[in-house]
Amino acid sequence: MRPCHGREEIVALLAEIRGAWDAYRYVVKDARAIGDDRVLVQGRMSTEGRASGAALEGDVYHCCWLRHGRLIRVEDHLTAKGALHALGLSGETLEAAGLRE
After folding, report:
1. Rounded Cα gap, residues 62 and 74, in angstroms
2. pTM for the full model?
3. pLDDT at 13
């Protein structure tokens, strides 16, 4: 993935990604506020490559940072541990958010 800035770049990236896949399905499994400025989203995706037919299925974790109620940054992670680390959660802060690695 490449960094995207602004609505147009984000829409173009999402359209590019979606164009590479057939039968794309995404379901949000959990979403949790981490303080007032961060959100952790766990989703489940399943899809097939348009050209290759290769199947892909699994969980993905999105770390979202907010300012004044708007997204200012989103990172995608393939593991919960990576996402929690990106959000700065470990030990007591992890427990306080009601999460586990």
Report:
1. 7
2. 0.79
3. 85
31 residue type, one letter: A
Classify strands 38-49 and 21-34 as parallel, antiparallel or unpaired. Answer: antiparallel
CATH assignment of 6-96, among 3.40.50.300, 1.10.8.60, 3.20.20.70, 3.10.450.50: 3.10.450.50
Q: Would you say 42 and 29 are in contact if contact means Cβ atoms under 8 Å apart?
A: yes
Whats the size of the chain, residue-wise? 101
| pLDDT tens digit sequence for 39-90 | 999 999 999 988 898 999 999 999 999 999 898 999 999 998 889 889 888 7
Tokens (6 digits) for 9: 């770049």
The residue among 85, 12, 68, 33 whose CA lies nearest residue 3 is 12
Instruction: State CA 86 to chain mean position distance.
Output: 12
Q: Under DSSP, is residue 16 helix (H, G, I), strand (E, B) or coil? A: helix
